[in-house]
Every structure is written in structure tokens, then in C-alpha cells.
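dude i think i finally got it to work??
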Amino acid sequence: MLRFCKPRTYHDPVHGAIRLDGSRAEEALLIRLIDTPAFQRLRRIRQLDTAYFTFHGAEGSRFTHSLGVLQVTRRVFDLLASRYPQLQPYRGLALCAALLHDIGHSPFSHAGEKMFGCHHERWTLRILQEEPQIHTLLERFDPTLPADIRQVLTKTHPILLLTQLVSSQLDCDRLDYLLRDSLYTGAQYGRLDLDRILTVLDYDPERTDLRIPARKGLGAIEHYLVVRYFMYSQVYQHPKSMAARFLLERLYQRARQLILAGSLKADEILTAWLTDNVDQLSLRQFLMADDIAFTYPFPFWAEHRDPVLADLASRFLSRNLFTSRLISSVPPAQQQNLYKHLYHKLGERYGDPESYVCIRQSHVQGYTLYHQGIELETDQGRVEIAQLSPLVQALTRIEPQTWLIFPKEFAPDVQELLT
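look at this
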């Protein structure tokens, strides 16, 4: 059993003072987990990858988000455990799973997963098992705790509530990031009424899952889903952020090509990330990667003799980003003709058109069932919320949007081809 420790308070811009009581065994464990190098690494990974190019306040980290998820989970769990004392033995498990759920994120968060071909869920499980400090802390608290957290994160734990708190359509992860990202980006339409949502949550001891009465909860959950839709459409899938992700992706792709050709040297860690299967890297190689380490070479790449690498690095550093043009209404054949025309012209200008133009789709997350969806308790039993709410039903029919991404100096060419 771990010894107790001094209390710790984190002054959070979203939740206020997050105080961890070192005289409680599970909260002393949380303090020690936060202090591990593997968790402190999350300070160096942006929560919103490239969104700071569009929303200058979007500088928050995975560290601050993880503390926020912990705080929301603690509020929900303690509220339910006060009504259902049989939940109390699972408090440490719930809080540890909430705190550690994102510890496996790569540099640039979700954008990095696509660029480097890795999966943060898989790395979270590896860190829980292989990182000596974290595994030892969890095991000393309870020998079964590492395996129990794995069950929660892989949705196999028999107490369904524990997984729902971390990963579901209505989880503490989403509740925190909607509040936090709204604050940091200044997007006021992302403001949630967290207190109202908490008042409608209940527990079903027989099914071991969340229970939400339709009479009290329908309006609160509708508001939550509308807020989530607006944050995806206006922030997470903002066209400028999409263009910045594409530029970053192509910058690393060019670097990879040059490293393999022997024309560019990079440090051991970045070389491994660009040339190996990231999910098969050693734990050391993974944990040494973060946003700072992976953007450090950009000023040097901006002076490299390879013109494409130098141009892409310069564009990223100076925010000379590509532009995005919505072409959803353009017939598919015309979309392809437009792409081919730009591809040819960019090839003539830069020699590597793949690095300068693409067609991408943005998938705004309205409402999907996501394994289980959100069911509300009615007099006739549980009913899927989309069957009760025309508003939510509309959110299930959101169509993807198609974007053409290219250097903004070619905007007149695109406009001419579209008229």
C-alpha cells in the first residue's frame, strides 16, 4: 500500500481548484501518477494539435485536459457513490482510468496519429503495462489495478459505468474537452451546462450502467449534442486547421523521403518515428517524442537545400498556410478535373505536387450510436434518444463536406475553373 502524501491543488481555468487529498489512498496515488515523467510528458503535447493557427488561445495540453477529465469523473462518481455505496470500492479504479486515459497520445494528438500511423489507445495500454514507475505505483496500490484499468479502457469491465465515464457517447472526456476547448478557442457556442448534466445522471444497479430519466434529461442531453456538433463543425474541422494538418503531414512525408534517401539527417527518435512502425517502437522511443522535440528541426529544415522541404517548413513556421475551398457542390468528375489541373501546375512550380494539393473530407460528428448510443429511461423502458428527439434525429443525418486544399496563390486558377 502506498503511503499518504501532502495534498495538491491544481488551479484550473475550467473547473477552478482541483484539490487532491493526499490523506486518501487513491488520491495520494493520483498525485504520484501525475508526477511521473510519462504523465508530465503530456504537458508537451497540445490538446488541439494545429488549431492554434486559427484560434490563438488554443494552447492547452493533454496534461490540463487529463486533469479536467479526472475532476469531472470524480464529481460524477462521488455523486453516484453517495447514492449507491456499493460503487465506493471502485473509486480508485475510476479515477486512475480517467487520469491515464490519454497518456498514450503521440505528438500533435489526433493529427499525429494519422501522420505517424499510431494509435493512442494501444500506447496507453502499453504504458500501463511496461512503464516501470506507473505500473509499480498501480500495483502497489492494488495488484489487480493495472489489469482492471485495462478492462475499463477496453470496455470489458463488468461494471459498465466505469467504462461509460471514460469512453461513451456521454463521457467525462467529452464533457471536459468541450468546456475546455470552448474556453481556449473563444467559441462561445461550445459552452456546456455541466452542472445541469450532472443533475440528470443516475446509476442502474442491475445493469451496472448510467441511467438517465427522459423527463429530466432530454433537454440537457440535446443541448450537449448540439454543442458537440458546433464544436466539430466550427473548431475541430475548421478549414484552416485542416489545411495546417495537411501541411504538417506533407512536411513530415517529405522529411521521411529524404531520410530514406540519405539526404536528410534527423535524431534517433524522429528517424525511428518516420521510418519504422510507430506502434512497434520501444517504450523509450515513444515517450521521448512530443511536440517540442518534433518541431525543433523546422528552422533547420527551412534552410535545407531541398526546395520542397525548405518551403513547407518555412510555410509552417511563418503561418503561410495553404487555403481550403469547399467543393461539396461540385460534381465528382469536375472535382477530379480540378485536382488534376492543380496537380499539373503545382508539379511545374514545385516538382512535388503531392506535397501541395489534396482533396479531403471533413466528417462532422453529429450523433452516432458509438457502440451503445445514449438511451433515456421512459415509462416504456429505455429508448434511444434519437427516437425521442427530432433534433437529435437531424444530427444523425449530417453529410460529410469535401474540401480542396492548395497554396493560396493558386486561388485565382481554382476560381477560374469553377466559373
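Strands lie at 8-12, 16-20, 202-204, 209-211, 323-326, 358-362, 375-378, 381-384, 401-406.
im so relieved honestly
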